[in-house]
Amino acid sequence: MSSHAAGTIDHHHDSSTSTGIPNKKLMMWTFLASDCMFFGALIATHLIYRLHPAPGGPQPKEIFSLELTSFSTFILLMSSLMMALAVTAIQKGNVKSMRWSLLTTIFFGTIFLGCQVYEFVEFATLKNLTLTNSMFGTTFYTLTGTHGIHVAIGVLWLVLMYVRSFQPPEGQRTFGWLFKNCLHVSAIVGAVLLSMFAVLGVVHTIQTGGTTASYFAGHLWMIVGFFATIAVAVSFWRQKTAVNFGEANAIDVESMGLYWHFVDIVWIVIFTAVYLIEYL
Questions:
Q1: Where are the domains of the chain?
Q2: Which residues of 55-90 are buried (b: 16+ CB within 10 A; e: fewer)?
Q3: pLDDT tens-digit profile of 7-30?
Q4: Helix 23-51 and helix 250-270, axial crossing angle in degrees, nearest 10
Q5: Predicted structure pTM score
Q6: I need a labelling partner for 192 at 20 to 30 A (CA). Which of 35, 44, 50, 51 fits?
Q7: Which positions ≥6 away from 76 have C-beta within 8 Å?
Q8: Which residue ranges of the chain lie beneath pLDDT 50?
């Protein structure tokens, strides 16, 4: 009993550090603090220019689609829930549950990125809002685009963490293992990109008054490619066993969770300060 208690992992404190906080978590908090100031400057800049708009500038109410942005916000919040479940699962040593939660978080993050890309394309091509033709466009694209880059980096990090959960002991990390991992990452990234294009097409079809069925009928090749990529990813999944990833790696997943939750919180602030404030 005493040996079991001694081997219990404390996921929130590290007695080997002077602060009692694990170094990885402390580094992540430090980075997020600097990123908070960075986003604060971008949001403040946007709000200042909105208080003093240039004459003849575009009207945000005529450009924004509050329904689409609200949907993508809801999706991002759900991804934060799944990320929390992934952290809880790995803290309990449940690697399988963590993987499913990570995959779901990746899927939701991809949907959010797809909606944002569609929004940018629609604003630029149909509503003539570009990065250079108005101050509103400059601050809007800079702020929301920077956040989108953060989400994309987070999705890539999630993919790499998911693949890492299959790593064998150091003695078994041969060239064949490295090659299979490269294929595994490629398969998941391919599935992410195809699903993102699918989201873009579905959103465009709905916005233009078409039906989802007509969109999928016209893009059968992409749907087949999507499921083929999923099949490749599953085939690699079945061949791998997790023997070197477990409860001891919880701090890595938790650090990633801190980043993802921060990105979600920043979007809530952006959604309120950029979109909702225009309708008050």
A1: 20-47+62-165+248-280, 168-244
A2: eeebebeebbbeebbeebbebbebbbebbebbbbbb
A3: 566 666 665 677 777 788 888 999
A4: 10
A5: 0.79
A6: 35
A7: 108, 109, 112, 151, 264, 267
A8: 1-6, 217, 242
Question: Six-digit token pair at 204?
Answer: 């465009």
Location of structure tokens 């908090």: 29
Name the one residue in this structure whose structure tokens are 């490619």. 225
